[in-house]
User: Fold this.
Amino acid sequence: MKKRPNLLITGGAGYIGSHAVKEARKYGFQPITYDSLLMGHRWAVRDGVFVKGDLSNRAKLVQVFRKYKPAAVMHFASHLSVGESVANPQKYYRDNIGNALNLFSVMLEQKVNYFILSSTAAVYGNPVKVPMPENHPKNPINPYGDSKYILERILAWYDQAYGLKSTYLRYFNASGADVSGELGEDHHPEIHLIPLVLDAAAGLRKEITVFGTDYPTPDGTCIRDYIHVTDLAEAHFLALKRMMKTGKSDFFNLGTGKGYSVQQVIWMTEKVTGLKVPAKIGPRRPGDPPSLVAQSKKAQKVLGWKPKYSKLETILETAWRWHQKLHSGLKKKPV
Ligand SMILES: NC(=O)c1ccc[n+]([C@@H]2O[C@H](COP(=O)([O-])OP(=O)(O)OC[C@H]3O[C@@H](n4cnc5c(N)ncnc54)[C@H](O)[C@@H]3O)[C@@H](O)[C@H]2O)c1
Assistant:
């Protein structure tokens, strides 16, 4: 039987990376997770090989590349808190860029030519047009988004100079959980709306704060584009397969093209859980645009990507199922 090519997945023990690890086999790859467990969890790596290591450790990376000879790299490992990046930009530029440069240098040395970058809608900054197409102006308004935009530009130059092919995937709001209930979000501290709203519904936090109800949106609260994490993971493999076939770099938005307000997320949570979500109104947060919605046609047309689980109701149903499992003491079960 033909051996499946190895795929190095950095951050494969994290939220999105672990869903990609789980999907890898379906697309003919053997996942090799490389993760420091700074934020991720060993139990979340459900397939393939796990190596505990930090991307700053170049010698260890070289060892892993020599041993597993990956055909390509999917790079999820980074810091991702917008607020923290504003307070501590050094951490974001040093790690998000420095570690990726380390990885690129090992890829070049070991002649691994295909790279998928977890990028973000935060590369666009404040929208001048909604939905936002891929050619929307890039004006990141925080060091997190800037660090990803810098990586995109580095990769464009590396393609030109060294032939390193890359696809950058600009995610909107990753959400939901594995449909079979094996995986889901478990961030400490949690910074994302849906798990926080579920915590409030379940009584694990007193309430959820709605930051601003006076935005120019139908109900006054911010609108975001929620994309299911399994749909996101699938797009990575479609993008990788295509890049390996065409030998061309590319970039895509990953969103649904439909936005939901914070208030709609709260209402849908109440419907799905049958529980009341205690909420209080707070002031707007600096740097929160009223609406962030992807124009998502390119990925659908070029990659043939069709989000299957990204209806808000499905996102909340899967997230709620995972939330109940996570908080019933099951999460630490070994794989
Ligand atoms: N979650 C979202 O909504 C969202 C939106 C847009 C983009 N992204 C991007 O997607 C990627 C994954 O996000 P996530 O929500 O899964 O994050 P996560 O924190 O759950 O996962 C990141 C993983 O990387 C690991 N890691 C961090 N630094 C490392 C290092 N130096 N060496 C080795 N491993 C390291 C962590 O331990 C963790 O397991 C990030 O690059 C993020 O910027 C996420």
